[in-house]
Design brief:
It is a single chain. Helices cover 63% and strands 0% of the residues. It is mainly α and 263 residues long. The radius of gyration is 21 Å and the shape is globular. Keywords: Membrane, Protein transport, Transport. One of its GO terms (cellular component) is membrane coat. Residues 61-244 form the Clathrin/coatomer adaptor adaptin-like N-terminal domain.
């Protein structure tokens, strides 16, 4: 209960660019956190659902207000209730040009939807456009959605853009592109079979985070066919040597242990 209260407060207070949440939402979080029983909590959430159902369909809702409603829908679902009546509004928010609103929309749809949901078709074109954005934060948000929402049928629609992003100047984008290709490999190995050499190339990426992300798909590939990757042993030994000699940034240490997850 206390953890939910803390997360809700962070959702309410963590916005930027003047899009902070209202006192009403903070009071909702507080009342749920102070609920003395599950029944009392459910009564509060059900009242909130009825209120949101009325408000979210009102004409001319300011964007700031709609953003708050979407976050409140996320909070409702965090507490185990159905907020499907508002999913379409989260999808629409991914189309917005404002960075904060767009990222809020992407966060919500990746939490609300699964790859087989009927609304996925409405977001594919937006993802395609955002993967080409000049703003790397928008690209990262779109790649997060790709990893969660793109299914076997829609992989071809975004695959060329994801492959192109492997050469992006920002390491965060390259890392998420690797994660997206790994996801595609799990969903449909045949769709990326001609791209597996990219994992070999990214093992030599200048950023340790990208290199570490590449180890995950390589692990799967080697598990299936070790003989085809024996030539990478030298590279793996070199990586372990860098880790053991503390040559990676300290950010990769965990409780003074050097890069344990890469190891």
């Amino acid at each position: 209960m206390e953890q939910l209260k803390t997360i809700g407060r962070e959702l309410a207070m963590g916005s930027q660019g003047g899009f902070g949440q209202s006192k009403e939402f903070l009071d909702l979080v507080k009342s749920i956190g102070e609920a003395r029983s599950k029944a009392e909590e459910d009564r509060i959430v059900l009242r909130e659902i009825e209120s949101l159902k009325r408000r979210i369909v009102e004409p001319g809702i300011p964007k700031r207000k709609m953003k708050e409603y979407i976050i409140r829908l996320v909070y409702v679902e965090m507490l185990g209730h159905d907020a499907s009546f508002g999913y379409i509004h989260a999808v629409k928010m991914t189309h917005d040009d404002n960075l904060v609103l767009k990222r809020t929309g992407y966060l919500a749809v990746t939490l609300f939807l699964n790859e087989d949901h009927d609304l996925i078709i409405l977001i594919v074109n937006t993802i395609q456009k955002d993967l080409k954005s000049d703003n790397y934060l928008i690209v990262c948000a779109a790649l997060n959605a790709v990893c969660k929402l793109i299914n076997e049928e829609t992989i071809p629609a975004v695959l060329p853009q994801v492959v192109e992003l492997l050469g992006h100047s920002k390491e965060a984008v390259r890392k998420k592109a690797i994660m997206a290709l790994h996801r595609f490999y799990h969903k449909s190995p045949s769709s990326v079979s001609h791209l597996l050499s990219n994992f070999r190339k990214k093992l030599c990426d200048s950023d340790p985070g990208v290199m570490g992300a590449t180890l995950c798909p390589l692990f799967d590939l080697i598990t299936n066919d070790a003989n085809s990757y024996k030539d990478l042993v030298v590279s793996f030994v070199s990586i372990l040597k860098q880790v053991a000699e503390h040559r990676l940034p300290k950010a990769y240490d965990y409780h003074q242990l050097p890069a344990p997850f890469i190891q």
